[in-house]
């Protein structure tokens, strides 16, 4: 099958959001926008929505209100997006660590884990200073520790796609094929 046929099949069968999970720097926002464009659906980035609501950057929310408050707002923002029908949602890297958020993603969305090696994550996150968790100590140590804690949760996503630099050009076509195959075989309950 060609990409166009996979896309047609997805458009026919997709009745819920496609949620991208994975580490900071895994390409959720960048690849998510491209995927949404291909599927002709809206794209949402939970971090961007939170920043708009708060009127300031994520780093400022962390320092002003603390991480627990950010996590609460993050959970509510994602749960709201899950009720909105077919779209693509990029979540913040730590969002799935809230068990309720991951449970709802599993029930009401199709989920894709974008997975990249530490070198790729390090290089990409070094370009952007708006990641408070990477400011405190060595970004490499933090990323390795977070990945070790989170990997088993990311692995609960319905699909896993390589988004390392070496694979990135193929990540969107791979997501499209994988989504189409998943929707052909999955026995989804109403969202
Ligand atoms: C975080 C990831 C960030 C943002 C916040 C915390 C995390 O989003 O939500 O800085 O805990 O991994 P990205 O994954 O989009 O960078």
Which secondary structure elements does this structure contain, and how are they paired or packed?
Layout: H1 3-13, E1 18-21, H2 28-39, E2 43-45, H3 46-54, H4 58-65, H5 67-82, E3 88-90, H6 99-108, E4 110-115, H7 118-125, H8 139-154, E5 159-162, H9 171-185
Parallel strand pairs: 1-3, 1-4, 2-3, 4-5
Bound molecules: shikimate-3-phosphate.
The site of shikimate-3-phosphate (S3P) has 10 residues, from loops.
Description:
The chain is α/β, with parallel strands linked by helices and 191 residues long. The chain is 55% helix and 10% strand. It has nine helices and five strands; from the N terminus they run αβαβαααβαβααβα. It has a five-stranded parallel β-sheet, with helices on both faces. It is globular. Shikimate-3-phosphate is lined by residues 24, 28, 47, 58, 92-94, 131-133. Shikimate-3-phosphate (S3P) binds at residues 24, 28, 47, 58, 92-94, 131-133.
- Order of strands across the main sheet: 2-3-1-4-5
SSE order, as H and E?
A: HEHEHHHEHEHHEH
Count of runs of 4 or more consecutive helical residues: 9
What are the low-pLDDT stretches, counting only 5+ consecutive residues below 50? none
- For the terminal residues, how far apart are their CA atoms? 28 Å
Radius of gyration: 16 Å
**Mean pLDDT reading:** 94
The proportion of residues forming helix, as a percent range, comes to 40-55%
Please summarize what this structure is.
Helix content is 55%, strand content 10%. It is α/β, with parallel strands linked by helices and 191 residues long.
């Amino acid at each position: 099958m060609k990409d166009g046929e996979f896309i047609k099949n997805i458009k026919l069968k997709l009745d819920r959001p496609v949620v991208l999970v994975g580490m900071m720097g895994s390409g959720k926002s960048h690849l998510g926008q491209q995927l949404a464009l291909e599927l002709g659906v809206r794209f949402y980035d939970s971090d961007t929505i939170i920043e708009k609501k708060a009127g300031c950057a994520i780093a400022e929310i962390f320092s002003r209100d603390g991480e627990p408050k950010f996590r609460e707002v993050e959970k509510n923002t994602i749960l709201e997006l899950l009720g909105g029908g077919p779209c693509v949602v990029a979540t913040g890297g730590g969002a799935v660590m809230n068990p309720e958020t991951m449970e709802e993603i599993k029930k009401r969305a199709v989920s894709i884990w974008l997975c990249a090696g530490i070198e790729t994550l390090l290089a990409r996150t070094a370009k952007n200073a708006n990641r408070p968790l990477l400011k405190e100590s060595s970004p490499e140590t933090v990323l390795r520790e977070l990945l070790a804690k989170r990997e088993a949760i990311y692995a609960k996503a319905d699909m896993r796609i390589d988004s390392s630099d070496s694979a990135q050009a193929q990540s969107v076509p791979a997501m499209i094929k994988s989504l189409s195959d998943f929707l052909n075989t999955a026995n989804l309950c109403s969202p």
